[in-house]
Design brief:
Layout: E1 7-10, E2 25-33, H1 38-54, H2 61-78, E3 86-92, E4 98-104, H3 126-132, E5 136-142, E6 145-152
Antiparallel strand pairs: 1-2, 2-3, 3-4, 4-6, 5-6
Helix pairs in contact: 1-2, 2-3
């Protein structure tokens, strides 16, 4: 079900990153995954394989964990039986930062961050981990459902 669409697009203004008139471009890959638990493993493997190809120069453990957590949340909280696909989009910016976007068919916005679960809990730490890795997370309602986004800077601070 995966559909890979590697393209070059101009650097988006919404990230707060500056662009020059030269070749400041974002390298982007998009792919679809079935909205089930297998998507998490497949998305992790895809991110680990494609991020160096997209020009990401940082270590891969943090971005792969971010992909894993966002896809897991989409599968568990955002998808319904009627959904046909989750969309994963990886974008490497000229500054070296990485945007991870996961779009699912959910219509319920994510709630405010819950307090950390008790140490024995088996789940509930996903967005805490993403934020602890230094990523800025946002979400927006889109025509096809909900899109969760995480921006991970490369060795710098998150633009505000």
């Amino acid at each position: 079900m995966r559909r890979a669409i590697p393209v070059w697009v101009p650097c988006p203004r919404r990230t707060g990153l500056s662009t020059t008139a030269s070749a400041a471009r974002v390298r982007v890959w998009s792919g679809e995954f079935r909205p089930d638990r297998r998507a998490v493993r497949e998305a992790r493997a895809t991110a680990r394989r494609l991020l160096p190809w997209l020009g990401y120069r940082g270590e891969l453990d943090a971005p792969v964990l971010i992909v894993s957590e966002l896809v897991t949340n989409a599968v568990e909280h955002g998808s319904s039986l009627e959904d046909t696909a989750l969309l994963l989009r990886l974008s490497v910016h000229p500054c070296g930062g990485l945007s991870v976007e996961v779009t699912d068919g959910g219509t319920t916005p994510p709630g405010p961050p819950a307090p950390p679960p008790c140490p024995e809990a088996e789940s509930g730490r996903g967005l805490f981990l993403v934020n602890a890795l230094g990523a800025r997370t946002t979400w927006e309602q889109v025509a096809t459902g909900k899109k969760m986004c995480a921006f991970l800077p490369l060795g710098g601070t998150v633009p505000r």
